[in-house]
């Protein structure tokens, strides 16, 4: 688990054109949900293309601890023999979710309405992150939580023995909070209603419907009203996990900023609640096309083709797009530094409570590498220097955050001098093949 091991300092040097095909791993959000919903179904769910990153492996271990039989068949093929809604056993050990906010928050929801007790912990990054956003709505079902000051892990949850259904308006745009409430609602009688003012990724809703739950979504003046009927029998599924758009972002953005590049990134999930980065890049003038558009497993999928784009301009990213690209702002800021003019990003307060404070982590590293950044509580802006003009030549801190580490390494590929990160180990949480994949395209990445 990230943060438990030794730091891996890494360096990325300016490189020649990137070319070839980048087969990025499976979607992290869908991988977590496949294991958790598989564990709550009756019978065997079969999964292909599962992301075998540390975050997801921690969730697999957790599902075993709650009584599901989880088997790795090799090459991304897994099966989960579920115990049914309300069938979780009480774990005999502390559940360690490593670096994963999605893992811990979704699992808390999934166990919250069963009469069992579980204690959760994580690495130094996860143990700093706010959990009250999940335990507050879970308390409405009757779940009790005791954690450290400020609602931090380690934390013990006592599941509600006689849960009541809940109607809850999510106060922050968070798919993790929405999903935790829906998963808890599975074992409550009657209808649980979750209302979100801004649409966030909807994989939980889509997958619950696929597993046979009765779930509806209505767009109203209040926002998206999601209604779930409790205590269904979930039917096991055959799931082909699409490749992760958030991982695709790294080879795509690298190709846009490294002169002469032409990279194909096939089979990327383009659910509209996830694809905001690609829309933004195209608005900036990126040469980025969708090829072979199709639907796979209920999700829109396409092959992305990215070519070096010397004429990109800074833009104002609409705040209403934030939720659909929330994990992509760090790598967008690297593209922005290589574009001309200012890129303004507003409505992004949530970036401050991710694996790191991502505005702060990127602003400090970008400035160290010679890029001007302005920031406020919920906005930041990057002054683009134009293609190939980022000085680089510095070491940036990754703060136990995979996306910060990968963003700075991509920056080094197009900078004047190499960019280093103090610790690339967290990359294994979401993109364990990042180094060989980027090296095959032509990147010059080294472990220091
Ligand atoms: C995720 C939701 C997002 C995102 C995270 C994955 C999910 O977090 O940042 O990487 O799978 O539900 P929030 O719900 O905190 O916005």
Automatic annotation (TrEMBL):
Report the top EC class in one word: transferase
Q: Where is this region: Disordered?
A: 1-24
Keywords of this protein's UniProt record, alphabetized?
Amino-acid biosynthesis, Aromatic amino acid biosynthesis, Cytoplasm, Transferase
Active-site residues, Swiss-Prot/TrEMBL: 327 (proton acceptor)
Please list the residue ranges annotated as the Enolpyruvate transferase domain: 16-436
Q: Name one Pfam family in it.
A: EPSP_synthase
Cross-referenced InterPro entries: Enolpyruvate_Tfrase_dom (IPR001986), Enolpyruvate_Tfrase_sf (IPR036968), EPSP_synthase (IPR006264), EPSP_synthase_CS (IPR023193), RNA3'P_cycl/enolpyr_Trfase_a/b (IPR013792)
Pathway, per Swiss-Prot/TrEMBL?
A: Metabolic intermediate biosynthesis; chorismate biosynthesis; chorismate from D-erythrose 4-phosphate and phosphoenolpyruvate: step 6/7
Q: Name one GO molecular function term.
A: 3-phosphoshikimate 1-carboxyvinyltransferase activity
Reactions it catalyzes? 3-phosphoshikimate + phosphoenolpyruvate = 5-O-(1-carboxyvinyl)-3-phosphoshikimate + phosphate
Its family remark reads: Belongs to the EPSP synthase family.
Q: What is this protein called?
A: 3-phosphoshikimate 1-carboxyvinyltransferase
């Amino acid at each position: 688990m990230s943060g438990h091991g030794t730091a891996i300092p890494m360096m990325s040097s300016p490189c020649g054109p990137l070319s070839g095909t980048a087969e990025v791993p499976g979607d992290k959000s869908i991988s977590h949900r496949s294991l958790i919903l598989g564990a709550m179904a009756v019978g065997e769910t079969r999964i292909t293309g599962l992301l075998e990153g540390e975050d997801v492996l921690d969730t697999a271990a957790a599902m075993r601890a709650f009584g599901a039989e989880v088997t790795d068949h090799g090459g991304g093929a897994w099966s989960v023999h579920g115990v049914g809604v309300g069938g979780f056993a009480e774990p005999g050990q502390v559940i360690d979710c490593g670096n994963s906010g999605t893992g811990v928050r979704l699992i808390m929801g999934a166990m919250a309405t069963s009469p069992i007790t579980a204690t959760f912990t994580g690495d130094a990054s996860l143990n700093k992150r706010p959990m009250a956003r999940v335990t507050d709505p879970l308390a409405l079902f009757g779940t009790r939580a005791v954690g450290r000051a400020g609602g931090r892990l380690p934390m013990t949850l006592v599941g509600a023995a006689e849960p009541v259904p809940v109607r809850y308006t999510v106060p922050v745009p968070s798919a993790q909070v929405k999903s935790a409430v829906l998963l808890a609602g599975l074992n409550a009688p009657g209808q649980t209603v979750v209302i979100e003012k801004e649409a966030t990724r909807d994989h939980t809703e889509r997958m619950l419907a696929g597993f046979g739950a009765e779930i509806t979504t209505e767009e109203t003046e209040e926002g998206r009203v999601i209604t779930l009927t409790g205590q269904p029998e979930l039917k096991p599924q055959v799931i082909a996990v699409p490749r992760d758009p958030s991982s695709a972002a790294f080879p795509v953005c690298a190709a846009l900023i490294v002169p002469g590049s032409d990279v194909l990134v096939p089979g990327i999930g383009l659910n509209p609640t996830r694809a905001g980065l690609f829309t933004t890049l195209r608005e900036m003038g990126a040469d980025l096309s969708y090829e072979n558009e199709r639907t796979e497993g209920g999700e829109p999928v396409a092959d992305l083709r990215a070519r070096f784009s010397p004429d990109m301009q800074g833009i104002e990213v609409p705040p209403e797009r934030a939720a659909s690209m929330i994990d992509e702002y760090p790598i967008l800021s690297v593209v922005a530094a290589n574009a001309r003019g200012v890129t303004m990003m507003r409505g992004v307060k949530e970036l401050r409570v991710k694996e790191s404070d991502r505005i702060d982590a990127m602003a400090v590293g970008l400035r160290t590498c010679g890029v001007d950044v302005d920031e406020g509580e919920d906005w930041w802006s990057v002054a683009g220097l134009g293609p190939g003009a980022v000085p680089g030549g510095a070491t940036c801190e990754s703060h136990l955050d995979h996306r910060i580490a990968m963003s700075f390494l991509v920056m080094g590929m197009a900078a004047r001098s190499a960019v280093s990160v103090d610790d690339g180990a967290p990359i294994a949480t979401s993109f364990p093949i990042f180094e060989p994949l980027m090296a095959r395209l032509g990147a010059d990445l080294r472990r220091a």
